[in-house]
């Protein structure tokens, strides 16, 4: 261990020792950004950057387990990413599939897919479904894997699901217009039944949500971190939790 690593380790323990677990967010959303830029800066390929980013996920979940986080949403692939060239998208999907398999095999996490399955290749759909089924009874952290995810797409899918549900019940449009409210739509989101994210972390220095959990993040706190996702450290995670705990949450008031 070099001096720099030693200093970071000591600092991380200091921050962790002062962390009030009562103020830890229960649901954290993470925009895992910067894999390709990290790879470029390191002289590697995009696939190597995505793999390094995938390898970081198990570390993050371990840190979350240590600090009593209950739900983690990982944005692994957006609907916009599906338009990438096949030479980049194909290996990326393979990395995501292996990552989801590993999460399910770990035995500590309950995996749930958040996204539109129909937009994904058949083999990717199968991996996501099998991981969700295999971990349905796991009591650990609920891990939402957002694959083929877009915030606008989620809201459109929720409204479509709501309309189909009421069409099957024979509800007229006039009747539905009279009763529809925020909760009706929330019940049809990919994360229905889950608490909304308390904290959203985005790495790589970009300060925008890019459509991540548009509906659920109305009252979320945001933390933008300069480091690329593969270089994200425990001390960066702890700083995000410390920053969150220091804020006074007003829920729009």
TrEMBL record:
Pfam families: Prenyltransf
Note on cofactor: Binds 2 magnesium ions per subunit.
CDD domains: Cis_IPPS
InterPro entries listed in its UniProt record: UPP_synth-like (IPR001441), UPP_synth-like_CS (IPR018520), UPP_synth-like_sf (IPR036424)
UniProt key word Mitochondrion: no
Subunit (UniProt): Homodimer.
Task performed by this protein: Catalyzes the condensation of isopentenyl diphosphate (IPP) with allylic pyrophosphates generating different type of terpenoids.
Family per similarity comment: Belongs to the UPP synthase family. Z-FPP synthase subfamily.
Protein name: Isoprenyl transferase
